[in-house]
Amino acid sequence: MLFERMKAEFQRLEVDDIVHPLVSAEFVTPFNILGTAESHIYSRGKRVAEPYAVQSTLMRCGNEWRIATANYCVPLSTRGLPAALMPPAFPSETPLPSQGGDDASHRS
User: Judging by beta carbons within 10 Å of its beta carbon (0-12, 13-18, 19+), is residue 58 exposed, middle or buried?
Assistant: First the structure.
């Protein structure tokens, strides 16, 4: 779901390039790196969203480094991206159709 929302937002913004210059990186352990980058999103050479920080944890799995976590610090003022990243409700918070969402037992 998140991938589909972000894909739709990038298509709406006509994104054709995303640049992630590295700001910092450090070994936490020999198998764990904590890194920070800044994301810049472009369409036809023009920035379409303000830059935002991304903090990632990389872990060594065998001979490969893999992204274990990525935390995006997207300003809420950024066009479209916060809505794509944060749905109005998580699936567990959405009432089932049979519940109708207006059950008097859920009211205070």
Answer: buried
Report the half-sphere exposure of 18 (CA within 13 A, side-chain side). 14
Helix, strand, coil content of the chain in percent (nearest 5): 20, 45, 35
Instruction: Report CA dihedral (47, 48, 52, 57) to the nearest 10 degrees.
Output: -90
pTM of the full predicted structure? 0.69
CATH of domain 2-80: 3.10.450.100
CA atoms of 69 and 73, how far apart (whole Å): 13
Query: Tokens 């990632």 map to which residue?
Result: 56
User: 63 burial class (0-12, 13-18, 19+ CB within 10 angstroms)?
Assistant: exposed
Domain ranges of the chain: 2-80
Contacts of 14 (CB under 8 A, 6+ apart): 43, 44, 48
49-67: average pLDDT: 95
